[in-house]
UniProtKB/TrEMBL annotation:
GO terms for biological process: amino acid metabolic process; ethanolamine catabolic process. One of its GO terms (cellular component) is ethanolamine ammonia-lyase complex. This is Ethanolamine ammonia-lyase light chain /Ethanolamine ammonia-lyase heavy chain. Keywords: Lyase. Residues 1-25 are annotated as: Disordered. One of its GO terms (molecular function) is ethanolamine ammonia-lyase activity. The lineage of its organism: Bacteria, Pseudomonadati, Myxococcota, Myxococcia, Myxococcales. Pfam families: EutB, EutC. The keyword Lyase applies.
Amino acid sequence: MMQPQRVLSEESSPTPDAAEGRIPQRPELLAPGVALLEILPDEDLFGYLKRARGGFEPRLYQQLLGAANAFKEGDASIGVAAADARSRDNARLLLARTRVGDLHAHPPLEDRLHVFMTEAIDTEAQALTADWTLGRLKDFLLSAEEAAVKSVCAGLGSDVIACAVKLMSDAELTALGSKVFHPLPGSHLGARGYLGARIQPNSPTDHPDDIRWQVFNGWSFAVGDVVLGTNPVSSSPTSVAAVEAALHDVLVTFGLEEVMPHCVLAHIDVQARVEELQPGTTGIWFQSIAGTDAANGTFDVTLEKMVEYAARRTGRFGLYFETGQGADATNGQHGGCDMVLLESRKYGFARALKRRVALARVGAGHEAEPWVHVNDVAGFIGPEVFRTREQLVRCCLEDIVMGKLHGLMIGLDICSTLHMDVTLDDLGWCQDQIAPASPGYLMALPTRNDPMLSYLTTSFQDHVRLRERWGTRVDDRMWAFFQQLGVIDAQGRPTEHFGDPRWVYAQYRRRKGDTRPDAELRAEAERGMAEVHARSVALAVGHGARPWEMVAGLEQEVRGHYEDAKAGIWTELSPRFIETISQAVRLRTQAVDRRDYILHPVSGERLEASSVSRVEALRLRREARWDAQIVISDGLDPRSLMDEGHLGPFLEALRRELEAHDYRVAPEHLVVSYGRVRAGYQVGELLFGDAADPLPRALIHVVGERPGSGHHSFSVYLTAPSGKGWTGAPRPVDHDLTRVIAGISDTSVRPEDAAREALRILGELCRG
């Protein structure tokens, strides 16, 4: 993999803390918090509300529920975090004294999603605990046998489950997580004593060979038994179909298509379209889900859509969901609720959809055995949600327990972004704190560094280490396959082929009937791996003194990317570079400085007053002559724009393509310092909003991506509603109306190719 230079622009001046890779703490910028200094003996939540406000008061109710949480920055930004430890303890006391039935009767957020979630609750079981206090429920969950816990949880709503979790310590969450299991039907995935893996073979260019080789690599370490799941760069049906086909081919070649599914994590609409185009080539269907109707809308997800898709999943493999604390808040759709409560609602959504899949299977004449699971992507968003390794552990433990109490098989992405205060070494510590709580599975990459998403997660080697330390196992069917493959022996010990993807490739070719000599296949494998490496995708070949240790060179490469990313986070967009951009109009957001921008993303979503005036003046001068505007924001790594061969070639090719297809592109480039994606939407509103304009008006927003992959990539966000649409009618412009091209650089998605793809997408948006 290319080793990027650790160079800051001349104008950059990272803070001392930043230079050490630590995000400076700034407690004075946090919300004041919920102060709850005095409560009466035996007072519960509703008694407190009556005394403090004369009756039920919804906003204070949400704040009291949030104040019972362990502290996280995301709750502070919502305004529901406790002001201090005493207030948190008092909020927990009030909650512990509150009756379960009263919580059921007072949902902190009522929307259509809440109504849908209640259909999966067993009303008879619900009546059993209605008179219990939350404190009694907590004690029961910790002391009862697994079967009794499951029978009671069938009657618990998501709000109650969240509130019970708030009362538990990390040790209590670990004990409860290690007691309750929901294995997937016909397997040991998610069962006691088993730890599965989703191989995540991401490619910066969606190259099928990158994807295949990472699967071979995982299997060489006897890792990968839950799903082969790729995050695509492009969500076009054609591109997604190619990745689906590559994954499907590997499973079919090895005869594993009935043992484990594959999945391309595009929007579920795209997966359904690919299945229509190529029947039988998609595996389990994926969708990210949120905890409110409004937040799901930003994913272009509706209840009706998900119910319809659940009804189609009558085969062996059903639905796969991803969630994560903080996603609702960062999209501004939290409804005033805290992150634990919103995360629990996501599991309630998944539970209700799992029930619909079971009904669909029965209707098709099968057993009601839905293959449905959830992956909690804890830590992916960044320091605006939480910052420290201790908070990451707390989040994972909370989510494991809430998922299991909803009757779900739940896995984890124990991950961090490069702008969190969690190091490569911290991740190993976090894994060891979380593994005893028995998550169903973890992510698995060749190294801890994802080459496309630019974040840190679990490596193949981590799985080998965790299996050794905690005595966990791979699903029996895949363990037998790994023995047959020859990477482990009959006792499960590594063979001479352990950690050698070339060996797995040779077996793949043999399964396809290839009779060439071993030496020829090995030479072909070497060439293929070199091509993958040239595209900046790491493969873990071999191991150190112990089977779970990386070879020294690869370890150094991974740490080099980590250090490079920490430098990129604190790089400023250079004024000298901006001068090279033709007709640049400089704007900035409300972020005070880069530190404020990183820690408080909302500060980068709106323009400051003088920049608003500058855009308004630009609109007046133009008199609606242009129907496309290019905006450039620094994002989380301004180097992605400033590197030679990145922004310049993209802008040149983009303008050439647009003008050749009769787009009227404004000559100015609007350059936003401390800009995030939603800052572009504000620019579009200011420039194009016109209730009388029915024509599409395109905003092309270039934003620097997260650093960490070594590519210094940027993305392009494409939005093209009508002038009326830019006014917010019939609904505000947001991510659900936008298409993105990610991973653009001279070493991943080439700028010229991205420009052609942007033209294609704009054509679809403008016609739509």
